Amino acid sequence: MSLTGLPNELLEHVIIHTLPEGFECLILTCKKIYTICVPFLEHHNALRSQFHRFAYNPGDPKNLDHGHITCAWDLIARIATEPVVARYIRHPDFGWDSRFILRRHWQFEPEDDIPAELNTFFADSAHLKEAKLDWHQYHATIIGDLQAPRYSQQAACFLLTLLPNVETLRLPRTWLPDSASGKLLDVIIKKTKNSQSLPWNTPSLYRTNILDTNQSPAATDLFDLAYACPFLALPHIRTFWGTSCAAIRDTHPSKGLYPGSFGEALVAVHLLSSCIDEVGITAFLKYTTHLRTLVYSHSTKGYHDAHTQITDWNSCKFVMAIERAVASHLEELSISIRELTGSLTPGTVSLRGFQRLRKLELPLELLACNIAAAATPRLSKESSVLSNISSESQQSNDGVARIGDLLPASVSEISLRSDGRLDHAKALEEMFQEFAALKEAALPALKNMQLSCINGADEEYKKRCNKLNLEMEVAGVHLDLVSSLAFPTLTWDGDD
Questions:
Q1: Please, which pLDDT band fits residue 394 given cuts at 50, 70 and 90?
Q2: φ, ψ (nearest 5 deg) of residue 149
Q3: Cα–Cα nearest to 98, from 65, 43, 46, 58
Q4: 3-class DSSP string for 361-419
């Protein structure tokens, strides 16, 4: 018997089971099925409009049917009363979880305000049972947070056990794992990895391919990179956006990051306004065997007080750590400095070890470190071992640190960012000596170059930029002089 031969009562049950994933395809199959689907269409469209790209918002939380969901508990309650809601959530932004909770004009009273379905929801949770967490205690902790009122980490984590179709996940800005939520998250990750052996309707984060820590880039905001690592162990996470992430040896609590492997599926990583040293980036990149794009912008971050603030940054060691971890497969690399209250630690750096790098963005002061090193008669033994390259490959025989000696031959696009200082003019002059004559041998793939030349730059720097423009034309390279540091000069895989 064909589908259309079934009685209408049975077809209605079939339609209910297609919501929401297959409903829009089913409704277009034939006139008969379309007619039976019509009564479901308005409600389907309403749920899709509200939950497909869900975000918390202010309003009367007693009226959850009209979008007034202010925290994870509200959304859990909404799902408890209509479970299909969870299946509509594809691209949730949980960033402002509980931000609007203080606007409630009513006092939370557990006896009156907990839907009857919720107790069963928690009592029957397979995730809580596997995590060996007492549901009464877990539930009571959430209630205590609501009565405070404050953000509930337990509620935010429990919500993730209910969602089967999430593709893009933006974490709450106040995400701060504790013992109970950490155990529950471990179970969520474990179940997701084994989801192919589970029933089709079992909630998991199997479809999730983008993770966003959803933090502010402000210097006072800080997100321990270790908190993101469990999510990066999900099997299909391809893009990670981490703003204000921190991983600093001996200062920040993230010592070993995540104890298991993570990041195997990552293709693009954007660590923006972050504070990470060479030890932190080494641990983070350990398993990223498929990584193609890495974008990092450095920002000085305050930890607990001014006495524990990390001010200096060893950018040379940072770059060499990246090279050791992903040089064989990385294709796009951007390193920039958003805010540095200290200084760059002196050293030398070379990117010649990157085998497949095509697109590269660097602060000019990073390459200028090699200019200073080339002027020093003898490099320290530590620098030589760290860079793992011979002095001949760091600079030409005449002692000049030319651009072709520092960058890999595979690069086709380069962006150099500078605030136009006088010493940067001198660095440009030295790095691009005899560039036209040496270009084909050193950088044969180079086609395009972007160089910062802001309005407030030193006059000598501007003159050097204009001169370089003529030299690039002779070498067959298109040079674009960018007048503002505020605008990105290149685009990267994973950009919105």
A1: very low
A2: -90, 150
A3: 58
A4: EEEHHHHHHHHHHHCCCCCCHHHHHHHCCCHHHHCCCCCCCCHHHHCCCCCCEEEEECC
Identity of the residue numbered 239: T
- Do the bridges between strand 210-212 and strand 168-170 make them parallel or antiparallel, or are there none, so unpaired? parallel
The 10s digit of each residue's pLDDT in 314-365 is: 999 999 999 999 999 999 999 999 988 878 888 888 899 999 999 999 999 8
> Which pLDDT band, with edges at 50, 70 and 90, does 102 fall under?
low
Encoded tokens for 267 = 């293709």
Q: Hey, what amino acid is at 351?
A: L
How far is residue 117's CA from residue 439's CA, in Å, rounded to a whole number? 70
* Paired residues of 333 in beta bridges: 294, 360
Separation of alpha carbons 323 and 316, rounded Å: 11
380-409 average pLDDT score: 58
Q: Please give the radius of gyration of the chain, using alpha carbons only, rounded to the nearest integer.
A: 27
Q: What is the pLDDT of residue 384?
A: 42
Q: Where are the alpha helices (DSSP H) in 56-163?
A: 72-81, 85-88, 110-113, 116-123, 126-130, 135-147, 153-159
Token output for 330: 């990385």
* pTM, entire model: 0.88
